[in-house]
Design goal:
It is a single chain. By secondary structure, the protein is of the alpha+beta class. The protein folds into two domains: about 5-125, MutM-like, N-terminal (N-terminal domain of MutM-like DNA repair proteins), CATH 3.20.190; about 140-265, Helicase, Ruva Protein, domain 3 (Orthogonal Bundle). The protein has helices at about 5-20, 40-45, 140-150, 155-160, 170-180, 195-215; strands at about 25-30, 50-55, 60-65, 70, 80-85, 90-100, 100-105, 115-120, 255-260, 260-265. A hairpin with a 2-residue loop joins β2 and β3 (about 60-65). It is globular, with a radius of gyration of 20 Å. It starts with a helix and ends in a 6-residue tail after the last strand. It binds a DNA duplex through α5.
Length: about 270
DNA sequence: CTTTTGACCTGACAGC
DNA sequence: TGCTGTCAGGTCAAAA
């Protein structure tokens, strides 16, 4: 589910209820996520004070006075702050109980998410160390994309999903940004022109900013920290619209199978 | 090195 | 009402 805009929406919703709060207790009902929740996490996190809620790519970082909890929502994860007395439903795997009677609850039916703990600089953690620039940050620009695409045969859609080149973009926004830039998802990366790289950088920024403003995209089960859906799905131009009409030219939206995942495009608007 | 494939999971949905 | 097959927002590790 969650790509950068959904994770950022979650982060913004968590900041107020979490910052400055103490974690009094940690309940791990199901430790088997993408990686096993460390046995030490409950003990180390209990008693800490949450100083900041940050995001890097699709990771959420809960910075405490002692260390940092690294969270990933995988495909189906969501986080909510609710009264600690709320009965846990199926797939509610972890609670961080706070000092005000509330708790941060992690739900993740598919268990592709992660909850890890480090006392060191989280940016040096093995999962974060090799991440490419933030697409909304200064490190992401046309020069970077140009250099990263040279001599590469991968389809442009797949290059945008490569978190070492640019982080935080998933299948929805890769497809949407490529539509906006007029580039087919199947186009070999090395065949992009300099101008197209410039257009694509702008398109990626625009799409992500719009999606954040809309509170993210809810296709089936994304909800923000207040349990509410996003509404960017109403704005989608190509993703999931196979057979429907292009909002720009009226042509029929097509699907391409790239690897195991669908790519969507308008054959007239994108080349 | 680059690129592809399989793996990890549950749930929703279509079709029989 | 089953049952089976397909698909889903991620991404790592291993194979080619």
């Amino acid at each position: 589910m969650p790509e950068l805009p959904e994770v950022e929406t979650t982060r913004r919703g968590l900041e107020r209820p979490l910052r400055g709060r103490h974690v009094v207790r940690v309940i791990v009902r199901e430790p088997r996520l993408r990686w096993r929740v460390p046995r030490t996490l409950a003990r180390e996190l209990a008693g800490t004070r949450i100083e900041a809620v940050e995001r890097r790519a699709k990771y959420l970082l809960l910075r405490t006075n002692v260390g940092t909890a690294i969270l990933h929502l995988g495909m189906s994860g969501s986080l909510r702050v609710i009264p600690a007395t709320t009965p846990a439903a199926k797939h509610d795997h972890v609670d961080l109980v706070l000092d005000n009677g509330q708790c941060l609850r992690l739900r993740d039916p598919r268990r592709f998410g992660a909850l890890l703990w480090t006392r060191d600089d989280p940016m040096q953690h093995a999962l974060l160390r090799h991440l490419g620039p933030e697409p909304l940050g200064r490190g992401f620009h046309a020069d970077h994309l140009w250099a990263a695409t040279r001599r590469r045969r991968v389809a442009m859609r797949d290059l945008l999903l490569n978190s070492r080149i640019v982080s935080g973009i998933g299948n929805i926004y890769a497809n949407e940004a490529l539509f906006l830039a007029g580039v087919r998802p199947t186009r070999p990366a090395g065949r992009l022109t300099r101008t197209e790289c410039e257009r694509l950088v702008k398109s990626i920024r625009r799409i992500l900013e719009r999606a954040i403003r809309a509170g993210g995209t809810t296709l089936r089960d994304f909800s923000n920290a207040d349990g509410l859906p996003g509404y960017f799905q109403q704005t989608l131009q190509v993703y999931g619209r196979t057979g429907e009409l292009c909002r720009r030219c009226g042509n029929s939206i097509k699907t391409a199978r790239l690897g195991n995942r669908s790519a969507f495009y308008c054959p007239k608007c994108q080349s």
